[in-house]
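anyone seen this seq b4? input:
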Amino acid sequence: MAKPTQSSTSYLHGPIMGHINRMTLPGGLGLLALFAVDFVDLFFISLLGERELAAAVGFAGSVLFFCQSIGIGLSIAVSATVSRALGADDQDKARALIASGIVLTVLTTGLIALLVWVYRDAVLGMLGASGYTLDAASNYLAIILPSFVLLSIGMAAGGVMRARGDARGALWLTLSGAIVNAVLDPILIFGLSLNLTGAAIASVLARITMFAFGVYKLHQYGLLSWPRAASVRANLPNITNIAVPSVLTNIATPIGLGFITATMAQFGDSAVAGFAIIARLQQVAFVALFALSGVVGPIAGQNLGAGAYDRVAEVLTESLRFVLWYCLAICLLLAVLTHPIVLLFQASGDAAQLIRWFTFGLSAVYLFNGITFVTNALFNNLGAPKTSTFFNIMKATVFTIPFVWVGAAFMGAPGVLIGQAIGSILIALAGWFWCRRWIHTLAS
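predicted toks r here
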């Protein structure tokens, strides 16, 4: 086994905002590269001039988001448990937790990938896909789903990198996949005329690259070991105590997204295509918030392990300050770039209308989504994962379904986005209030 080549970075000293900025910037750049590839995928598909293919990407994206949310939930559990072990300076415990976490990841994601692969046509039909659009989305999923296990292991490795404070390693994990995808996309989509199939193949090869890089880094840290049955049995309860609620928390969001997609489908392929463009646009535009959600957990986890409760409270305060200023800047930028975005994707009809609704105001909802990202991450890492599950399930159901349904009934396709925004605002404020109370309880 390789000797550790780099000591884990401590979050126990120094300004909290300094740690947030230092870890969020490279994490955001890595995710930006990854999200930008999806963004470019959809751009290339739009250039083919078939609105049905763009809609197919939207339907398939909802299914993949569901799968990836499970992988993210498992990686959060691995990161949370490992960060506590590192905070207590227990390398052997961290190594055993990683091995057990990989076993849980392989078993869980392998089963999910198989079930979704078998029933993908039925799932796409439930979302509202039909005809040529359904066939294209089904073929896309058939190619990409088998790589889900490898992607999930790579994400778990990324969680360990963040827990260790290895910002550069976490950045290159995502960059490696993004570079492979970006290089192969135009070759496969246009050069070999594989269209949507080419985009799927490129994504699979990118996931394989991320898996290989993640395993290599774990070996470099000296934290990679073969799982032992006794160790797995001993560690699984600790991991699953976080993994189960964390997974439930994360899959609640794509379930709500599935309802939104199905509701949008009643307004036609143009509306679904517009929603798909917005989904990828907001990933790129608000990438730092997604990165932040993976950063605040390990920072809070290490300080919790060390009993530094005042610094745990500061993580919440400083994170929300980061969310506020970042969202104000991005929302203004989106408003200015509205017309170029519409032209870039050759959007028209409902698609163009939805993009304008988003960039001219509804993008501001990400201020509240950012609050939810932060509070959920803190709940998961501060011993209250069930609370995170509760808030996410409430957001995906009670604070999404009725609001979206009413919005669609009275305002059509834009009403779907408006209803979703109202529900997100209400649940974010409730989560923020409850998170403050929980941190105060821990300190007491």
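Residues 301 and 381 are 5 Å apart (CA to CA). The chain is about 85% helix and 0% strand. kinda curious what u guys think
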